[in-house]
From TrEMBL:
InterPro entries: WD40/YVTN_repeat-like_dom_sf (IPR015943), WD40_repeat_dom_sf (IPR036322), WD40_rpt (IPR001680), WDR72-like (IPR049916)
PROSITE patterns with a match to the protein in the record: WD_REPEATS_2 (PS50082)
Name recorded for this polypeptide: WD repeat domain 7
Lineage: Eukaryota, Metazoa, Chordata, Craniata, Vertebrata
The keyword Flavoprotein belongs to this UniProt entry's keyword annotation: no
Gene Ontology cellular component annotations, sorted alphabetically: cytoplasm
Membrane spanning stretches: none
UniProt repeat feature WD, residue ranges: 176-212
Keyword annotations: WD repeat
Length: 276
């Protein structure tokens, strides 16, 4: 894994300024050596990522965690912004977008790690201003991702049945264990008071009450759980249209019709209605 990391970081270093290098190229003129290596590194990065998506995602996620921990412990932040990882945020997002497009089933297996990477690469203030859909629409295609604009929180359902709750303002993430199988869909209620989570494997839909106390929302009570389960219903499992991993991503989604009512909409159009 250390080798993979060294290779990826080396390539990111080479294509960190690719946008700048390649933007100044006039059609028909030969590439400068720097632009040539930036383009080759960018191509190599895409090839490695699509050949081994799990290795790419887990390696970059580990680097992100390492850098975040370093930044938290370092008094001087300057050197953090000059690292290849920090300079190549645009390139990392470009590769993640390719993986979502071409290999969504690989991405969904590591959705929390992917969101960790996206959160590192996106500017928090920009997400607050424009929303996740505007900043990185590709990730919003997954039914296991929901963003609530008013309190800037993102919920991500994971393969092992837990939900990761990100607070964009504080940059913190909390994990709640909610289901016995992979989470198929998550969605915030329109007023943000509840989060609905559904797992087709354990055939349950759960409703979680958000902690909206002032202290909780400011983030002072980091130890206080942000969510508590208030209701769980059993649901008949949804059968995929045909056997195949791709269909699992589009099995069912959650649609809130009011602050207290939600529809579980299956891919075949069948609806199950629930009330908190």
């Amino acid at each position: 894994m250390a080798d993979v990391s060294a290779v990826l970081m080396g390539l990111l270093e080479l294509c960190a300024d690719a946008e700048k290098q390649l933007a100044n190229i006039t059609m028909g003129l030969p590439l400068s050596p720097a632009a040539d290596s930036a383009r080759s590194a960018r191509h190599a990065l895409s090839l490695i990522a699509t050949a081994r998506p799990p290795a790419f995602i887990t390696t970059i996620a580990k680097e992100v965690h390492r850098h975040t921990a370093l930044a938290a412990n370092t008094q001087s932040q300057q050197n953090m912004h000059t690292t290849a990882l920090a300079r190549a945020k645009g390139e990392i997002l470009r590769v993640i977008e390719i993986l979502i497009e071409k290999m969504p089933t690989d991405v969904v297996d590591l959705l929390v790690e992917v969101m960790d990477i996206i959160m590192y690469c996106l500017e928090g203030s920009l997400v607050k201003k424009k929303g996740l859909q505007e900043c990185f629409p590709a990730i919003c295609r997954f039914y296991m991702v929901s963003y609530y604009e008013r309190n800037h929180r993102i919920a991500v359902g994971a393969r092992h049945g837990s939900v990761a709750l990100y607070d964009i303002r504080t940059g913190k993430c909390q994990t709640i264990h909610g289901h016995k199988g992979p989470i198929t869909a998550v969605a915030f209620a329109p007023d943000g008071r509840y989060l609905a989570t559904y797992s087709n494997t354990d055939s349950h839909i759960s409703f979680w009450q958000m902690n909206t106390s002032l202290l909780g929302s400011i983030g002072m009570l980091n130890s206080a759980p942000q969510l508590r389960c208030v209701k769980t219903y059993q649901v008949p499992p949804v059968q995929p249209a045909s056997p195949g991993s791709h269909n699992a991503l589009r099995l069912a989604r959650l649609i809130w019709t009011s602050n207290r009512n939600v529809i579980l909409m299956a891919h075949d159009g069948k609806e199950h209605r629930f009330m908190v």
